[in-house]
Every structure is written in C-alpha cells, then in structure tokens.
Amino acid sequence: MKTVKIGLLGLGTVGGGTLNILQKTLPEIERRLGQRIEVAIIAVRDLNRTRTVETQGIEITDNTADVVNHPDVEIVVELMGGTTLAKTLLETAIKNGKHVVTANKALIAEHGNALFALAKENNVIVNYEAAVAGGIPVIKAVREGLAANKIEWIAGIINGTGNYILTEMKKPGADFAAVLKVAQELGYAEADPTFDVEGIDAAHKLTILASIAFGIELQFNKVYTEGISQITADDIRFAEQLGYEIKHLGVASRVDNGYSLRVHPTMVPKSVLIANVSGVMNAVMAYGNHVGPTMYYGPGAGAGPTASSVVADIIDVIRWKDQPIEDRVPPLGFASDQLQSAPVVSIDKIETSYYLRCFAQDHVGVLAKITSILADSNISIEHLHQEPCAQNDGAATLVMITNCVKESLLNTAIASLTKLDDIEGEIMRIRIESLRS
Asked: Tens of pLDDT along 237-276?
C-alpha cells in the first residue's frame, strides 16, 4: 500500500484536532483511500510546550521552512493562520510542487486569486473546505453539489461568536457588553473580538462563498461590512414581537449589473429555518434556480469539526493529485478562464425593507413630520409601534418597518430625520431579508 507523507504547519487547536483524527481514524481513512497517510513533520511555535496529542515518531521543528521544503512531503497542511508568513510558506510549497490544504479564510479571501493561479501553474491542488463554516462541508455542497444550478443568492450565519452573542441577548437583562464578556470567558470570543463582532471574519468567508456560488473572482475588499455592537436588547425584543429574529448574516446575491456582497445585522422571519439557528452553530442557505432553497447546518468551529474538514480535504487531494489538471474540480468551481470580474455594487444600490428605531419627543405633530420626510423619499411605513421611552419621560420609542426601498433613498430620509429637533440620538436601522425566492 502506497504511503503519502504530509507536513503540518501549526499544532494548535485545529492542528491538534487534525493529528488526532489521523491517528484515531486512520484505518477507516485508509480503507477509503487504499493508501496510507503519514504525518512526517510538524512545525510548532514552541518546541517545549506540552502536547495533548501523541507526536512520537514525528519530526517536530520550530522552523516552518523545514515543512515546505521537506523532500518527502507531498501535502502541506497550513493551520497557523495569518496572511503574511502563511502566504509566503504556501507560495514556497506550491513552487516546490507540493499540494496544499488550509483552513485560513483570510488568506484565501485576500490572496486566493494569486494562490490559485500559482497552483495551476505548478500543477498542484489547493483545498480550503475548513476555511468556511468549520465542520460543515459547504464548499463542496455549493461548488459541486449545486453545480447544475444558477445560484441566485447565498446567505449564512458564518460566525459562531456573533450568533452566540445575539442568542444570549434574548435573555432578560442581557446586553451586548455583558454577553461579550461571557463569550470571552467561555473561549468563544478572542480577547480582541473585533474580527468576530464587527463582521470581518464573516466577510472573509462570504467572499469565498460568493466566488464559488457565482463564478466571480475573490473580492474581499468590496464586501460591505457592519458589526453587531450597536444592537440592543430592545431591538431583539421588538424584532421578536414583529415575528423576526436578528442574525448577523453574510448575504451575497445577484443584482442588476453585478453582485451584492454584504455582512450586517439582519432581521429574518421566524418562519425561515435559518432564523432558528442559535448559539455558536453555523448555517448557510443557497438558492438555486432548479433546486430552490437548501440549507447546510452544523458546528462552525472547534478542533473536531474544523479538523474533520481538513482531513476530508487531505483525502480529496490524495484521490485527485495524480489526475490531469483539467480533470480536477477547479478551486472556485468554475474554469479559471471563465471567472467573471463583474462589479460588486455599492450598498447604496441595494433594495430591502428596513426596521427603524428612534427616540422622538412625545407631542402632537412629530409623527406627521416623520411620515412626511419618509414619503418625500417614496418610503411608506408598513408597521408602526410606539411606547414610552424608559430613559426619557418626555420621549417615545418609535419602531417602524418600511416597504422595500433602495438604501440610498433611506439614507437621504434618515439624514433629514436626524436634523429634526424632535429626534434624539441616532436612528437605528436593520435590514430585513425574507430569504425566499
């Protein structure tokens, strides 16, 4: 039985999980492949650190170059993160004729176009299933399973930290800061939670999903990104009363003259399955013109789930590495010379319904002023709720649901509303998505 040797860059949470799967499930994996897998070398940051996995018989080094230049290694598995050293190492591995498996969503989203081109030039495979939604095989599902479809839109809860925070904020007395602190204590959020709560992590993943869904180049720098730090417990309460759940979604869709790529808090009807995804779980929905809506659900992070996708990618590389390049599945699902560079449109051109919340002086004529300003931008109010403002005896909290309107028109209306003496503070705006055909 032939032996394929691999090298690991990183032995942290996911690296340790990958080695653990390869050790404990190796007989089953080898039955699938008809070949053996051997971890030949692992690069770690600290040689003296105590390991939770068995490394006896494996060369351990703190020199990452030893892995990508190892003469016997056929597959380099990058699990160290970052976009600087990791990029340099994978470029070296590819030039050395080694196949690559990575869980690095930032690297793929920001440098994937160049890496895939380099891989084609050197006749090697770059697999990245674990970069999006952890243990959910969503890359394969969309790229290959839905290949018969023209995908109209794809939307997902693709950051477990944000979903955990929004879920916990539904509990009485909870607020964003307190829930974030608990998330950090539980290890769901980093000490610096910016990438998670401000949507950057989700934007990396959405960039990849949009490319495999639509056959467009990776364009991370064009994703509109908005976080959840401004969401209040009142917003979640009002949404629930109106029949919605607030989710931090990544949404990519076809629009006139291009594509929309955006990450932001979103109100989703409770009747839509993805609205009921709670805690740290992930879910991705895709709408194909033949199959209709499909959804993929599961754990989006963690040692076992993410490593499961990493090992599945290693298996795929071994199955396909000896096939001619034209017989392999292209990295983004479309032939490289068929990828489109169609424009990603500005958020101003997007049309949705909106939830608006503001504080207004509670006296006669204020509501008439508000509705008049909205009408000037062709915005109608489909639902209105008013209640006394707990923070100000002389003010009321107004909650409105608008008709479907272009964002640029709403921006104009909000700018006019904030100039009113009767409006206090900023106006909260949350986009509404039905996630139906």
From this structure: 999 999 999 999 999 999 988 999 999 999 999 999 999 9
Residue 128 has pLDDT above 70, yes or no: yes
CA distances from 45 to 26, 48, 220 (A): 26, 9, 29
Active-site entry in 98, 140, 205, 247: 205
pLDDT of 334 > 90? The answer is: yes
290-326 per-position pLDDT tens digit: 999 999 999 999 999 999 999 999 999 999 999 999 9
The phi and psi torsions of 6 (rounded to 5 degrees) equal -125, 160
What does the mean pLDDT of the chain come to?
Answer: 95
Q: Tell me what pLDDT residue 437 has.
A: 60
**Catalytic residue status for 205:** yes
Domains defined for the chain, CATH in brackets: 3-135+304-338 (3.40.50.720), 138-298 (3.30.360.10), 348-432 (3.30.70.260)
User: Residue 343: phi, psi to the nearest 5?
Assistant: -70, 145
Residue 41: burial class (beta carbons within 10 Å; 0-12, 13-18, 19+) = buried
